[in-house]
Amino acid sequence: MLLSRVRRTLATLAASALLVGSGGVSAEYGLNLPRGVTPISKEAYDLHMLIMWICVAIGVVVFGAIFISILKHRKSKGAKPATFHESTTVEVIWTIVPFLILIGMAIPATKALVAMEDTSNPDLSIKVTGYQWKWGYDYMEDGVSFISSLSTPKEQILNQQDKGENYLLEVDNPMVVPINKKVRLLLTANDVIHSWWVPDLGMKKDAIPGFVNEMWFRAEEEGTYRGQCAELCGKDHGFMPIVVVAKNEADYQEWVTAQKAAMDADAAAAGRDWGMADLMERGEKVYAASCAACHQANGEGVPGAFPGLKGSAMVMGPVDAHVDIVLNGKPGTAMGAFASQLNDVDVAAVVTYERNAWGNDKGDLVQPSEVKAAR
Amino acid sequence: MSNATTHDAHHEEHPSGLLRWVFTTNHKDIGTLYLIFALIMLFIGGAMAMVIRAELFQPGLQFVDPQFFNSMTTMHALIMVFGAIMPAFVGLANWLIPMMIGAPDMALPRMNNWSFWILPFAGVMLVSTLFMEGGAPAAGWTMYPPLVLQTGDAFPFLIFSVHLLGISSIMGAINVVVTIVNMRAPGMTMMKMPLFVWTWLITAYLLIAVMPVFAGAVTMLLTDQYFGTSFFNAAGGGDPVMFQHIFWFFGHPEVYIMILPAFGVVSQIIPTFARKRLFGYSSMVYATASIAFLSFIVWAHHMFTVGMPLTGELFFMYATMLIAVPTGVKVFNWVSTMWKGSMTFETPMLFALGFVVMFTIGGFSGLMLAITPIDFQYHDTYFVVAHFHYVLVTGSLFSLFAAAYYWLPKWTGNMYDEKLGKLHFWLSTIFVNILFFPQHFLGLAGMPRRIPDYAVQFTEFNQISSIGGFAFGLTQLLFVYIVWKTVRGGEKADDRVWEGAEGLEWTLPSPPPYHSFETAPEVK
């Protein structure tokens, strides 16, 4: 009790001392690991604090000896050098004692690790797919699927607008989970290696193309938990956050129902013929979310890295090839396959948009049914 | 001079001007070349760090685009590791090993010349990728596939420069081994060698063992990219994680390649200024060898999050924790050497003391990172960045500064400016902690590494860190000035230079003759 109060005061003092001269101070900056809301995050936190205090204690002894030496055994104080230069006894002691301390650390660490790696008997499973640069979530039991990408406006990133409270840690479609349920994540990736990490859930695991990794968590409190991709995955690695909303069972079921209704509506929309204006409007949104990161909002790309689409031979050429590259990507380049991320309406809309935006003016329009046939 | 008849005059014969440096086979000249090259690369890599810290001074994108930011983190690491720290230690090895073991020169002088002169070309090739289509490599110095396969025209140049740097390191290492094994003065048994020589001997074996592994890994990347192989491509039956295993089988010993010679340097300096023999010489040797052995069986602690079997994670956790034992022995030995000594605090001693304290801090965070269940939280955050900069900057780099101040009077015959040296130490120490200590907090609070922009709650500590970074960077200009001034002139140093200095190099004049020991000294 007293110790934790002293610690908090010290931490605050240290932080405010460091902050002198550093402009604006935001409401909450962290100094330490969050304790989190899952059994494993709490265990990890306790283990972290234990090891840290052991290190501090060893540090006090070692640094204490150095400082006493510096103060007392200096020539300016007339110190005469001793002649000892070995002692088997002390050398054996300071080999064995650290070894015993390490065993003391290894026991709780092993216990925690065994619990963390036990992904058996989950209550629900969610497949997590990393894309450059967004996340895809597929609920294995409930049949809900969606893509989750950064929702912070570009203007805030480019300093043209004030930054919001959850700057860079906000998404359009958060992962929603029920509380007090063992949620198992099955992680994979579509292009390069990503890593799924939400500090409050206490676990991080890589999403690797061609392989499936597992991790689990059991959120014990309702709330919104934020994290980020933790493995360098290219240009927008810093811009693919993760948001998990933990809800009680009833709210979670309500959310599942609403998601399914929305998916049904999308499926129905794919069946009808779309007009130019509707396709262009939807296409612009899809383009902004899925394409603009590389090909840029103005369609001019980044010379040398990402080709422009404005006036490009691909976009001005046959529709079939254009739909094909969006669905299946271009092997050996950064152009990924979007077949699993975009539905038929999205692909039809974005292809139509690319063929008619930035003065491309092909005038043709692609229907969702054509995309369906091309899959 | 070409008709010189006396033995001595013949040995003094060498071209002057630029050609002296191009054709030199002399260990001192080559050592100097290595050190100058390392210093230049330190400033190039440092300038990239300044770009990183400038972009991270505030949230939002201010100066560079994210792709270029990734190039900066990648190139900063490659240049610092392969261009600055490693060549600097090879430079020290060249200068010091022959003088310390009583040899006239390195065993393989022509190969010595070649192993240096590969470096500038490899370095220029690496830096030139900044101007290529698609930009410089941006997939991190660890070059993980599949991301690294998205590199533009720079890709083959990256691989080739890594090959060249590796060839240079292997040749340098072979030279060190052959010299130490064959050219010791009579009476200089293995267990009488100075610790700097011991640590370099072990380092050289590490280099010979792992650089070919690294070359193999990047060659597999090359064939995956251009020749249709699928070593790391899951769609072709390969495994991207296999690259990480191979890379870190090289990468972890590589970490010790950059710190073992630093242990050697500090083990030379502390006894001198404590005026007391090194405590536990033989346990120091055994601890170094143990660390080198353990370095081969801990590699997967860099990749706890890739999804290994539980037993694998436990093995690598226990093996990694074990490293704390020999490392602890070293620190305790240094402290015991100071204990009841008669210490003075000239600049080399200050840097060595700074090394012991701050390297130990890096050791503590290393121990925390070894604990797998909490590494899941620390992995790929700024906590890791703080950790390895404590061991590489306040560890390796500080030991290099200590070495430079310690041996510069011997090398040049002139004393450096003690006041400026101390100023350099204190400014460096204060600013390096302002730079890296807050990064522990950033990592624990959840900031991933290698991101160009961050959530607003990370602003304060990033600003503090950046201010420390700019100041630390500027401070290093002072070092260049001090070295320059010392080379140009100054108070003359006597042969022993330091009151408590022991070892063969201090029996030579300052500056030493072109060939160190033409007649081998007798070691009792």
Describe this structure in words.
The complex is a heterodimer of chains A (375) and B (524). Chain A is an alpha+beta fold and 375 residues long. Chain A has eleven helices and ten strands. In chain A, the strands form two sheets. In chain A, strands 3-2-1-5-8 form a five-stranded mixed sheet, with no helix packed on it. A five-stranded mixed sheet of chain A has the order 4-10-9-6-7. In chain A, a hairpin with a 5-residue loop joins strand 2 (134-139) and strand 3. In chain A, helix 6 (276-290) packs across helix 10 (344-356). The longest helix of chain A has 34 residues, at 39-72. Chain B has 524 residues and is an all-alpha fold. Chain B is built from 17 helices and no strands. Chain B is globular. Mean pLDDT of chain B is 94; it is low at 1-10. At the A-B interface, helix 1, helix 2, helix 3, strand 7 and strand 9 of A face helix 4, helix 10, helix 11, helix 12 and helix 13 of B.
Task: Name its key features.
heterodimer, A: 375 residues, alpha+beta, 5-stranded mixed beta sheet, 10 strands, B: 524 residues, mainly alpha
